[in-house]
Amino acid sequence: MTRFSVLDLVPVREGGTLAEAFAAAADLARAAETAGCKRFWVAEHHAMDGIAGGATSVVLAHIGNATSTIRIGSGGIMLPNHTPFQIAEQFGTLDALFPGRVDLGLGRAPGAGPELQRALRKNLHQAAEQFPQDVLELRALLTGDVELPITATPGLGAKVEMWMLGSSLFGASLAARLGLPYAFAAHFAPDHLDAALALYRRDFQPSEALDKPHVMVAMNVFCAPSEREARTLASSQQQSFVRLRTGNPGKLPPPIEDYTDTLPAPARAMLDHIGQAAAVGTAREVREAIHAFIRRTGADEIMLCGATYDPQDRIRSLESTMEALEAVPAA
C-alpha cells in the first residue's frame, strides 16, 4: 500500500510575515496528520526571502509541538552546510522531544554561492566531496556502530530514521550502498527519476536499518473543484520557480489565471518539463495522475508538494487529494 506525506518549504508570501509562515506550516502539519499522512518534512534553504525553513531543526520542533502522531523530518538537511556532530545533536534532541517520530533526510547539494559560503564559514564544494564520509560519521554518532573519539549528547542512541535524498544517480548509488531508504526530488528535477530508481533497487544492500529497497518520490499536487481553479492555485509556485530560474527570487506571489499563457516558450517548456511529476486538476484527475505516477515509479511512498498563496488553499487541496486517494485503492 502506497503511503502519502507532505513536503513544506514554509513559504513566505508577498505581504506576509515569517510568523504567519510558521503558523501556516503548523496548520498544514495538523491537517496532514488528520488526513492520514505519514510524514511532514521541511526543507533547508538559506538566504531566500520566500522560504523560512533555514533553521530546519528549530522549525521541526515547532511542527512537532503542533502535532502528536505524524512523523516529522528534514527533506532535507544539506549536510555540507553543517558538521555531522551538530546534526547529531540537533536530531538527537528532536528524537528525545518527539520519540519515534523523527526522520533525517540528507542531501549533498550545497546550493550556495560565495556569499553564503562566507556566511557559513565553509568551503561547501569541498564539503560536498566529503559527503559520503560525513554521512557515515553522522550515522555512527547516532548509532555507535563505529567507535568515535567523541559522543554526541543528545544524539547517541537516538532512534532517528535516516534517509538519502537526491535528484541524480549519486544519491541513489549511495543510498543503495548504505542500505538507506531513498527519496527522489522529482517535483523540481525529474530528469534522472527512472534511472535513479532502477539503480537504487538493483544495487541495494540490506542494512540493520532496512532489509529491502524503499522509495519515496516527490511530486507537485494541486487539487481544486475545477481544473481551471487548480491551475490557478499552481500559478503561485510556477511564478516562484520561473523567477528563481531567471535569477529573480522573492516571496510567494499571488496566483494569476492562465499564467502559463503569458510566458515565453522557454519558460513554458521549463514548467512543462517539471510537470512530468505533477497532478493538477479535480479530485478525479489528481487521483488518476498520482496512480499513474505510482505505476511508473513503483514508489512505496509519495511526497506531496506544492505551495499556494493562501495557506488554506493548500490545506483544502491536501484534504481533497487524500479523500480522492482513499476513494479508489492505488494500483
Automatic annotation (TrEMBL):
<dbReference type="GO" id="GO:0005829">
    <property type="term" value="C:cytosol"/>
</dbReference>
<dbReference type="InterPro" id="IPR019949">
    <property type="entry name" value="CmoO-like"/>
</dbReference>
<keyword id="KW-0503">Monooxygenase</keyword>
<dbReference type="GO" id="GO:0004497">
    <property type="term" value="F:monooxygenase activity"/>
</dbReference>
<protein>
    <recommendedName>
        <fullName>Luciferase-like monooxygenase</fullName>
    </recommendedName>
</protein>
<feature type="domain" description="Luciferase-like">
    <location>
        <begin position="3"/>
        <end position="300"/>
    </location>
</feature>
<dbReference type="InterPro" id="IPR011251">
    <property type="entry name" value="Luciferase-like_dom"/>
</dbReference>
<dbReference type="GO" id="GO:0016705">
    <property type="term" value="F:oxidoreductase activity, acting on paired donors, with incorporation or reduction of molecular oxygen"/>
</dbReference>
<comment type="similarity">
    <text>To bacterial alkanal monooxygenase alpha and beta chains.</text>
</comment>
<dbReference type="Pfam" id="PF00296">
    <property type="entry name" value="Bac_luciferase"/>
</dbReference>
<feature type="region of interest" description="Disordered">
    <location>
        <begin position="234"/>
        <end position="256"/>
    </location>
</feature>
<dbReference type="InterPro" id="IPR050766">
    <property type="entry name" value="Bact_Lucif_Oxidored"/>
</dbReference>
<keyword id="KW-0560">Oxidoreductase</keyword>
<dbReference type="InterPro" id="IPR036661">
    <property type="entry name" value="Luciferase-like_sf"/>
</dbReference>
